[in-house]
Amino acid sequence: MPLTLYNKDTYEFQTPKSGYAMASFFSCNYNEVIQTSEPFQIRLKEQMEVGEIYQVSFYIKKANYYNSGECYYGSDELGIYFHTDTIYGMAYESEHEDISKIENALNLYVMDTTIWGNPYPVLSQFLQTPDVALDTLINDEVNWYLVTDTVYADKAYEFMTFARFNMFEDIQWAIEEDCIWGTAVSAMLVDDVSVNLVNEEHIEAVQA
Amino acid sequence: MKNIIPLFTLFLTVSLNAQNLVPNPSFEVYTGIFNDFMHNADLEYATPWFDTPAYPGGGQPQII
To answer: Three-state SS for A35?
Structure first.
């Protein structure tokens, strides 16, 4: 059933891949200095088994909302990182003034607070490499694109994080010519995320 | 009987392999944030998903 969204905010007339909800976020912004993103995370139902292979997949399309003069570009920037570190979120941040005090918290970026007197910390380095990365430019606002890959669990991974993993110059962009430089971001929608154990050897052994 | 056991084992194996380790994979489970109209909400309403700021005070994803 098509879902029409309330036009109070920025989203309208885009439907989830399934059901009634989907995640929306800025995967990256079109700015060489302030390279932000909106990572999001989840704790898996159970730890991955060391030595096993998992099929990871999700659907993605470009968000088509426009407001405040901002522009939304397509890009090929988004990755998934599996980890054993503790996750933390906005709620944690409000409870812990100093995130560094959270035990074993995942650290994705090096944020530099001294560049050009910018009021916000500037992303200067990525600390992690994604296990699954977007393999094409996403600029379609209608059709969902299936991203799927296999991941070998060399550790008992318990958490997965969607985030940006590349600097501005390493990202492929779909530029809107009438957009204002510096205010553009790459806005994406994600739905139907899955991580499934692939145990082909076991199946083949049983079939034999 | 000899054939039934492998078939059962195969079925069990496929069933186990089909389990999605991601809870709330389609963001359909969320707390009472939507009223008469659909609108945006913080992703953390779709428990157990978490937002993680790219920097302190940074933006956060949403469910829509």
So the answer is: coil
Angstrom distance (rounded) from CA A122 to CA A134: 24
How distant, in Å, are the alpha carbons of A76, A119, A147, A151 from that of A132?
12, 32, 9, 8
Residue of B37, B51, B63 with shortest CB distance to A21: B63
- Separation in Å, CA of B1 to nearest CA in chain A: 15
Domain that holds residue B49: 25-54
Retrieve residue A40's tokens: 């999001």
Which candidate from B38, B55, B61 shows the least CB-CB separation from A25? B61
Residues of A whose CB is below 8 A from B14: 203
Find residue A122's DSSP bridge partners: A112
B27 and A CB contact within 8 Å: yes
User: Using one digit for the tens of pLDDT, what is the confidence trace for B50-61?
Assistant: 877 655 445 556
- Candidates B7, B35, B38, B47, partner chain A, best to mutate (most A CBs within 10 A): B38
Cβ density class A66-94: b for 16+ within 10 Å, e for less? eeeebbbbbbbbbbbbbbebebbbbebbe
| pTM score of the predicted model | 0.80
Q: What is d(CA A20, CA A132) in angstroms, rounded to the nearest whole number?
A: 26
Residue B9 phi/psi, 5-degree rounding, is -65, -40
Range in A40-44, A75-79, A115-119, A186-190 the model is least confident about: A115-119
Rg (CA), chain A: 19
Question: Which one of 2.170.140, 2.60.120, 2.50.20, 3.30.1120 gives the CATH number of domain A23-207?
Answer: 2.60.120
